[in-house]
Structures are given as C-alpha cells and as structure tokens.
Design brief:
- By secondary structure, this protein is an alpha+beta fold.
- It folds into 2 domains: 172 residues, no CATH class; 225 residues, no CATH class.
- The chain is 42% helix and 21% strand.
- The chain has 10 helices and 16 strands.
- Strands 2-6-7-1-5-4-3 form a 7-stranded antiparallel β-sheet, with helices on both faces. Strands 8, 9, 10, 11, 12, 15 and 16 form a 7-stranded mixed β-sheet that branches. A two-stranded antiparallel ribbon has the order 13-14.
- Helix 1 crosses helix 3, helix 2 packs across helix 3 and helix 5 packs antiparallel against helix 6.
- It is elongated.
- The chain binds zinc ion (ZN).
C-alpha cells in the first residue's frame, strides 16, 4: 500500500530573497486566475483538458509573468483541478462559484524544487532561491527516512508568523504485513475504544473536555453578540485541538497494541452503526461532536496503521454488544444497564465493551470468501493471551449470517449500546 505524508517545514529565507518568494506566489495566483478567466470554450463550458488549456494560456502566461515554464504548468494545472471539482459539484446540482486563488501558496514539483537534507532550492521569478530548513524532531523523523520519496511540495506564506513554509509531500510503498491475526476494536461513548486484547482507552478526559466546552459554547451561543461569536470561533479551534490530541493518543495506542500482538488487521465497526446507536435524546451538537470524533479516530487509526502495512477493515457490528463472544448466543438481556455482559446461555461474564470488541474482530474473521480481505487466510483473533478462531465459537456463525444480510437495513435504535 502507498503511504503519503505532508510534512510542513519552516524555511529560513535570506532577507534579500524574501521578495522573490512573495512575487512568485503572487504571480502564481495571477496565472491560476488567468487560467480560470480564459478557461472556457466557445460554448461557455469550462475546459478540463490540460493540453487544451496549455494551448490556450501557456504562451500568454510566459509573456505576461516572470514565472519559469514549470511553475506556469503547475499554475494552470492547479486551475484545471479546481475547475474539475467545481464541475463535479455542478453536476451534483450544487451551486458553486468559479474557483479563484488568493491563498498565499504556490505548487512545486521535481523540476522547480530540489529537496536536500537541510535545505531546499526553489525556482522563482528571479532565479533559484536557497532556503535552509528549520527542523523539529517530527520533521526529521520523516525527512531522514530514506524509504520516503520526496516528490513535490507547496510553498506557503503564513502572514501571522511572517514566515515561509514548505509543505513537502513524501511517499513510500509499504508491503502489507504478513500474517492473519486480527485486532478487534469497539468504539463507544464510555471508553471511546476497547480492543479484543483487553486494552481500554479511557474517554473520561475526552468527554469531560467536550462537556466543558459544550457548556461554554451553549452559554455563548445564547448571547449571540459579536464578541460572543468571536469567542465561539476561538473556542471551536481550541476545543478541536483538545479532542484531536486525545484521539491521536488513542489511535497511536491502538496501532501499538496491534503491533505488540503481531496483528496484520484491525477490525473496526462501520460508522453508520455508530450514528444509529446515538442516544436519540442527545442534543444535536453533542451528536455531531461524537460523529466527528469517531470518524476522525477511524481515519487516524487507518493513517497510522498504513505505515506498518496494517490493514484497517470495517464491519457491521449490529448486536455486537448483545451477542456472547464465547458461545454466540444473542439476547438483549445479555447486557445490563451498567455495561456488564452476562450470557444467559453459557454464563460468560465480562465487561460489555470488551465483549463487543471481540465480536467486532470475529465479524471480520467470519466474512465469507469474496468479501474477506484476500490476504486474511485462516484468520485468528488476538486476545489478551492467545488467539481465537471463528470455529472456536459455536453458534456465532448463525448470528453473523443474519448480520451479513442486513448490512444495508437500518438498525433498530438502541441495539448495540
Ligand atoms: Zn455465551
């Protein structure tokens, strides 16, 4: 699988060359906007073909700007990509204005940018500019990794810092991790995440953060004054960062857990179900927040797992909290209101979220040929100690059979929670 990362690196630009970068960014945007202005055919339709656009604007842009040839190409290409997504929105019936470019940034490729260990050279309207990197530990860890190919970058100017940044795009090919061991992960509001290996990622702090900010948010929203609105905007940035940091810690922990137990797959529940499972009494803001947090957490897990060649697969977890992970018996009375699981059939007793995490993993194991990941083989579920095969769980297969057929049907509200 291919892993792509964007690493932002601050540039130390010689004082006398800063204007060359400013000019380059400005002319880059001028070129992209010119392309939009001249990017329609005789019928008024946008031209989405790069070689047609090239014939239309390239020579004008070479005459009227000081940009080197390859920056002109990047500028009209950026405009074409933006027109393509605008047309896609129009085709969906969405109202969108024509793209326009005023963000202080310019796109570089291998011909206009050379990336070295400690510095880069960039083509500008006035020859090449050499800029030293200001590197932190995070940046070094990626840039010193020779497995990554440094493909291209985007030059950004940040007015608030009065500084230039190069967002370096790096890419590497990662072999899919061998093996057929699966880590099951249950996502829920109480613990946030629980693994089939029995690791609990506490959500107390996270939920406290949300609730604290929610309270402030509500009181500010009620006021509706200009200063309250400004405070609200600042707050949402801080609130998001708070939750994001917590989610990063959790997603890192889940991937570490998978590595420690030699898992090549992580099974998570698909998000439609999480949405269905929300308490109908929760207010909308809270629901949106939880939706966002779970989606973010899954994306982070997939993002981090990819670096190790670990595949993340989502399964439908309906009834995963009512089903016994030991004998497969399913009943709504298996789980009490405190979240404790006690099987009516075999008497198995365990934390309810841990039981659900095992079921989520078992769902992936039990997928039939054709639906299961091709490399999964005779899969086994990683447990606190040892592993479990689907065949070890009598009766579980029948409930999964039912599950598979009902994938697209709405789930009765309340089940699984
Ligand atoms: Zn049981």
């Amino acid at each position: 699988m291919e892993v792509t990362r964007t690493v932002p690196v601050k540039l130390d630009v010689p004082g006398e060359r800063r204007d060359d970068l400013h000019q380059t960014i400005e002319q880059f945007n001028t070129a992209a906007n010119y392309t939009i202005d001249h990017g329609s055919d005789d019928n008024g339709d946008l031209i989405l073909n790069k070689s047609t656009i090239h014939d239309e604007v390239y020579h004008d842009l070479r005459d009227e700007t000081d940009l080197p040839a390859n920056l002109v190409v990047r500028a009209y290409s950026k405009a074409v990509e933006a027109m393509k997504s605008t047309v896609a929105e129009w085709e969906k019936g969405n109202n969108r204005p024509l793209p326009s470019f005023d963000e202080p940034s310019a796109v570089y490729d291998k011909r206009t940018l050379t990336i070295n260990d400690e510095y880069a050279t960039l083509s500008t309207v006035n020859g090449r500019v050499k800029a030293d990197f200001v590197l932190g530990e995070y940046q070094r860890s990626y840039l010193n990794d020779d497995d990554y190919e440094k493909r291209m970058g985007t030059l950004h100017y940040r007015p608030d810092e009065d500084a230039f940044y190069l967002h370096i795009v790096i890419q590497k090919e990662v072999d899919q991790r061998d093996g057929d061991r699966v880590l099951g992960v249950d996502l829920n509001l109480k613990n946030v995440a629980v693994t089939s290996t029995g690791r609990f990622f506490d959500g107390g702090e996270l939920l406290w953060g949300q609730n604290h900010y929610f309270r402030v948010r509500w009181s500010l929203q009620d006021k509706g004054t200009r200063s309250a609105r400004q405070a609200l905007r600042r707050l949402s940035g801080r609130e998001n960062r708070f939750v994001l940091n917590r989610l990063h810690t959790i997603s890192r922990g889940i991937v570490e857990e998978a590595l420690q137990h030699d898992c090549s797959y992580i099974a998570v529940e698909n998000l439609t179900h999480i949405r269905d499972r929300m308490d109908a009494h929760d207010d909308q803001l809270k629901r949106q927040m939880h939706n966002w947090a779970f989606r973010e957490l899954q994306e982070q897990i997939a993002y981090k797992a990819a670096e190790y060649g670990i595949q993340v697969e989502s399964v439908n977890p309906a009834f995963s909290s009512q089903t016994c992970s030991k004998c497969g018996h399913q009943s709504s009375t298996n789980r009490d209101s405190d979240g404790w699981f006690g099987c009516n059939e075999c008497g198995y007793e365990v934390d309810g979220d841990y039981n659900a995490a095992k079921n989520v993993g078992l769902r992936l194991l039990a997928l039939p040929e054709g639906k299961r990941p091709s490399g999964l083989g005779n899969s086994q579920l990683a447990l606190k100690s040892g592993t479990l095969n689907v065949s070890d769980v009598s009766n579980v297969h029948s409930s999964i059979e039912f599950e598979r057929e009902s994938t697209d049907k709405p789930t009765p509200s309340g089940v699984g929670s």
